[in-house]
Every structure is written in structure tokens, then in C-alpha cells.
């Protein structure tokens, strides 16, 4: 046992040395009470609260639980999370993707980056990372994103003018949802969808419905994965709805990819030089099959909409609640950029408060409160020898640890301005985009869309409280404020 502790890969801090060493003695909820917590008391909708409750009040920073046959070790400590993620091999495995895989097998579809595993995943990741993972790769999308932001601002003016008081935007998350979808589609499909128009095209409406179904089915889809197959004949709805929403999402991506194929073909037929962005590159380079392109476009669009829109909603909500912060953000923009300049990604480094605002928003409201990994080897974590298997990393809980973030409950974007350990990719207290080779591939795209939109919204509406945002409905999913 001590030999393991001394092993270079598994060196751990003394404070984690266990009172008891065996996995059997690791604390955790009883199987039955855990099932009641998740399936009866809506635990899938309160994952963030359960993390905090279990780690701070009940069991400590490392605890075990059973979901039916599945054994899970949950980790709610910055250094232990770091240890697990740093021990990852070349193809880290995401946990609980079986239902996604099953749908794809059923329909003869390929897996995309989120659902693929092993060498298949590595191949796709290697292709996509070259195009969208570095800030300079996504800088070229500034112009397209700015066009979408112009439409967003117009839309806000329209919505306000339709209100009695001329100021209120009643469902701001719906607005940002459409902005995020339009923004990410501009980048992925190289075409506009019309989400921010007064009359949204029919195909786009259908797609928004499929996406909304997928998101509103969020918990159900978790059940779809968690409910054993033999129970499906008795509880058929979750699986049926899960398949229905995937059908809608794949169908929409396929339409856009097929349109691009036709465009390219007609340009080639006319002897024109074919130029374009990500999708054009993927189709021309043939590094991925067309089925793989369908799957990746589908999964990236799915991953890139509500993540970005909820973050934007929370950021504006926090600004509205903290006028003093809003004032300093506004002054920074006006002083460092001027009032009339349309910002591009090159301007963002001149605006540290905007960057701090995004990081602080994601610390307080990380869209994904936790993440799962199937560890590939046995590890000694927190003094316990944990056999390879499912680990759940509790990012929400570590984000609210005083030890990691003094005055953790307070909204303080300026905490990210300090150039010390705080603002580093390996600040494992808050890693809203994950860490390492399996981290979010859309991180730079999301940052671009969010930074540029916040700058422009702030410039256009320097006093967000008078934008008067009603968020209650949108945020029901996150529990109360
Ligand atoms: C604020 C916005 C976003 C947040 C907070 C976010 C967060 C995350 C997180 C936590 C993961 C899991 C990482 C891991 O397992 O270590 C992830 C994966 C992923 N995200 Fe994002 N994401 C955002 C926006 C986007 C956008 C805009 C796109 C697409 C353009 C995207 C595409 C993906 C994909 C494809 C994966 C799977 C990567 C892989 O397994 O290789 N995300 N994201």
C-alpha cells in the first residue's frame, strides 16, 4: 500500500491519507437511498446540490455510490480531480454513453466526438482539433459571429419595443438560445439559419423543437441511459423520446451537410476554386467519412447551443444584479476599445474584465456541474486504492470551496485578473470546459461567441437592469437563485 503511495504517478498529499484504507470502508449513500434520491426525489435535476450536500455534510470529498449494478466513486476535491485527469491515457473514456451508442447502432449512424471512444474518437479528435482548438483558428470566425450579434441587438430592440414599458425582454434565455444556435451554425455549417428573424424558417423551427425536446428531455434521457433495457417495455417513453429527438437532430444536420455537398459540387463543375470554412474543409479533405461528418455536426451543434446560451444568460443576470461590476466592465470597454469599434477576437485580451466575467460566471454556474470518466487503470486517490471504473468528478462542489476560491459564494470577476495560479488552465478548482485531451473542443468557439456578444450587448445597453431580464422560467432547471 505504501509502495503505491510512493509511486510517482500516484503521489498524494498527506492530508488525504485515509482514516481507513479499504474501498469497502469508503463512505457513501446506501444503494437504496441513492436510488430514491435520484429516481424519486429528482436527483438528476439537483446533481449540483447533491454534490455539495454529500461532500460537505455527509461523506467527505471522496465517496462511493451504487446506481443499480454500477459502482461510482465521486471526487469533490481539486487535487484529487487533478490526479485523476492527469493520469489519463491517450484515449480517455467518457462514462455512461451507452444509450448514445445504442441509438447510433440502431439507426446505422456513426458516432461523433462526444459519443465515440478509443481509436475512433482519437482519429476524429485529431482532425477537428487542428481546425477549432486554438484561439487563432477561431479568430477567422469573428466576422461571421459579429453579423449574428448585429441581428441579436436588433432583435433585443424589437422585443423591447413590443413591450408595454419599452424595456423588458421577458425570456432572455430563449433569445440567447437562438443567438447561440445561429452563431454556432454559422461556424459549423457556414450558413445562416434565420433564428433571430421575426419569421423563423420552418426547417429551423422544426430543428429548434427537436433541440428543445432533447434539452427538456435531459433528465428523461439520463433515465433512458440509467433504466435497464429489460424495463423498457414497461416504461417505454424515455427511450422512445430519446430516439425521436436524435432523429430530428440528425435529420437537420444532414440537410445542411448535403446542401454544402451540392454547393461544392456545383462550384467544382463550373471549374471554380472552392473556398470555405470548417465544413468545406472536412468535406474536401475526406479525412472523415460523410457519416462521421453528419455525426460530428450533429453532436457539436447539440453541445454548442444551450451551453453557450445558459452561460450568456447567467452572465447578464449577474451583471444586472451587480451594477458596480457592470459599470467597470462598461468603462473598460469604452476606455480600451472606444465606443464605436466593432470588437474582434484580437480585442478580447485588452478586456480582462470580460474574460474574468466569463470565468466567474462559469465558476458559479458551470453548465456541466460534473463529469464522468471510466478510469483505465487502478489509482490511489485520497488514500483509497480505486479499481479502474467509473469516477464522477464533482466540479460544481470544488468551485464553491473556500479553500479554492476565497469568498466562494460571492460574484467577483476581478479574482481572475490576478496573474497567479488562479488564471491557469490547470486550476482544477474550476474547469468548466474540462481538462486535457478529452476537454471541450468547442471552448474557443464558445469563448468567442460569448466574449463578443457580451461586449456588444454591454455597449448597446450599458444598464442591463433596465433591460429588465426575467429569468425565472429559464432557470427553473437550475433550482432557485
Ligand atoms: C460555455 C460553453 C461550453 C461549455 C461550458 C462546455 C463544456 C464542456 C465540457 C465540460 C465538456 C466535457 C469535457 C471533458 O469530458 O473533459 C465538453 C465536451 C465537448 N464540447 Fe463543450 N462546452 C461549451 C461549448 C461548446 C461548443 C460551442 C461546442 C461546439 C462547437 C462544444 C463541443 C463539445 C464537444 C464536441 C465535446 C466532446 C469532446 C470530446 O469528447 O472530445 N462545446 N464541453
UniProtKB/TrEMBL annotation:
- On whether Membrane is a keyword of this UniProt record, the answer is yes
UniProt GO MF annotations: heme binding; iron ion binding; monooxygenase activity; oxidoreductase activity, acting on paired donors, with incorporation or reduction of molecular oxygen
UniProt binding sites for heme: 440
Which Gene Ontology BP annotations are present?
C21-steroid hormone biosynthetic process; cellular response to peptide hormone stimulus; cholesterol metabolic process; cortisol metabolic process; glucocorticoid biosynthetic process
GO CC list: mitochondrial inner membrane
Cofactor section:
heme
- Protein origin, superkingdom: Eukaryota
* Matches recorded under Pfam families: p450
The protein's UniProt keywords, in alphabetical order, are:
Heme, Iron, Membrane, Metal-binding, Monooxygenase, Oxidoreductase
Q: Where in the cell is it found?
A: Membrane
Coarse class of the protein's main subcellular location: membrane
Family note: Belongs to the cytochrome P450 family.
Name by which UniProt lists this protein: Cytochrome P450 family 27 subfamily C member 1
* Species this protein is from: Gopherus evgoodei
Gene it is expressed from = CYP27C1
Amino acid at each position: 500500500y505504501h509502495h503505491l503511495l510512493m509511486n510517482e504517478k500516484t503521489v498524494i498529499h498527506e492530508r488525504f491519507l485515509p482514516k481507513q484504507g479499504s474501498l469497502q470502508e469508503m463512505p457513501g449513500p446506501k444503494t437504496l437511498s441513492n436510488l430514491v434520491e435520484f429516481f424519486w426525489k429528482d436527483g438528476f435535476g439537483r446533481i449540483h446540490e447533491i454534490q455539495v450536500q454529500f461532500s460537505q455534510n455527509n461523506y467527505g470529498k471522496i465517496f462511493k455510490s451504487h446506481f443499480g449494478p454500477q459502482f461510482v466513486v465521486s471526487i469533490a476535491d481539486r487535487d484529487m480531480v487533478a490526479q485523476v485527469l492527469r493520469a489519463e491515457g491517450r484515449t480517455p473514456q467518457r462514462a455512461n454513453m451507452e444509450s448514445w451508442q445504442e441509438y447510433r447502432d440502431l439507426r446505422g449512424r456513426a458516432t461523433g466526438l462526444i459519443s465515440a471512444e478509443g481509436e475512433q474518437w482519437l482519429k476524429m479528435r485529431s482532425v477537428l482539433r487542428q481546425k477549432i482548438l486554438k484561439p487563432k483558428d477561431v479568430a477567422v470566425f469573428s466576422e461571421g459571429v459579429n453579423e449574428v450579434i448585429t441581428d441579436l441587438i436588433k432583435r433585443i430592440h424589437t422585443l423591447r419595443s413590443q413591450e408595454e414599458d419599452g424595456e423588458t425582454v421577458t425570456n432572455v434565455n430563449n433569445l440567447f438560445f437562438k443567438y447561440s444556435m445561429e452563431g454556432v451554425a454559422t461556424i459549423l455549417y457556414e450558413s445562416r439559419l434565420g433564428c433571430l428573424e421575426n419569421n423563423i424558417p420552418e426547417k429551423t423551427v422544426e430543428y429548434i423543437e427537436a433541440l428543445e425536446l432533447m434539452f427538456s428531455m435531459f433528465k428523461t434521457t439520463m433515465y433512458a441511459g440509467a433504466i435497464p433495457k429489460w424495463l423498457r417495455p414497461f416504461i417505454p417513453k424515455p427511450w422512445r423520446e430519446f430516439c425521436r429527438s436524435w432523429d430530428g437532430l440528425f435529420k437537420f444536420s444532414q440537410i445542411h451537410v448535403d446542401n454544402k455537398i451540392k454547393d461544392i459540387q456545383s462550384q467544382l463543375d463550373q471549374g471554380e476554386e472552392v473556398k470555405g470554412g470548417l465544413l468545406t474543409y472536412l468535406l474536401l479533405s475526406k479525412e472523415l467519412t460523410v457519416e462521421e461528418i453528419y455525426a460530428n455536426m450533429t453532436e457539436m451543434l447539440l453541445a454548442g447551443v444551450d451551453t453557450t446560451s445558459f452561460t450568456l444568460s447567467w452572465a447578464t443576470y449577474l451583471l444586472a444584479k451587480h451594477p458596480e461590476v457592470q459599470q467597470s466592465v462598461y468603462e473598460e470597454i469604452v476606455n480600451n476599445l472606444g465606443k464605436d469599434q466593432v470588437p474582434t477576437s484580437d480585442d478580447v485580451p485588452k478586456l480582462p474584465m470580460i474574460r474574468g466575467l466569463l470565468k466567474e460566471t462559469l465558476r458559479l454556474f458551470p453548465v456541466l456541474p460534473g463529469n464522468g470518466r471510466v478510469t483505465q487503470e487502478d489509482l490511489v486517490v485520497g488514500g483509497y486504492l480505486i479499481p479502474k471504473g467509473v469516477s464522477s468528478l464533482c466540479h460544481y462542489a470544488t468551485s464553491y470551496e473556500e479553500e479554492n476560491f476565497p469568498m466562494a459564494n460571492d460574484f467577483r470577476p476581478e479574482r481572475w485578473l490576478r496573474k497567479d495560479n488562479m488564471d491557469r488552465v490547470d486550476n482544477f478548482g474550476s474547469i468548466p470546459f474540462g481538462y486535457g485531451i478529452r476537454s471541450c473542443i468547442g471552448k474557443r468557439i464558445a469563448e468567442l461567441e460569448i466574449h463578443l456578444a457580451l461586449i456588444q450587448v454591454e455597449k448597446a445597453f450599458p444598464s442591463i437592469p433596465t433591460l429588465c431580464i426575467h429569468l425565472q422560467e429559464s432557470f427553473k432547471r437550475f433550482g432557485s437563485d
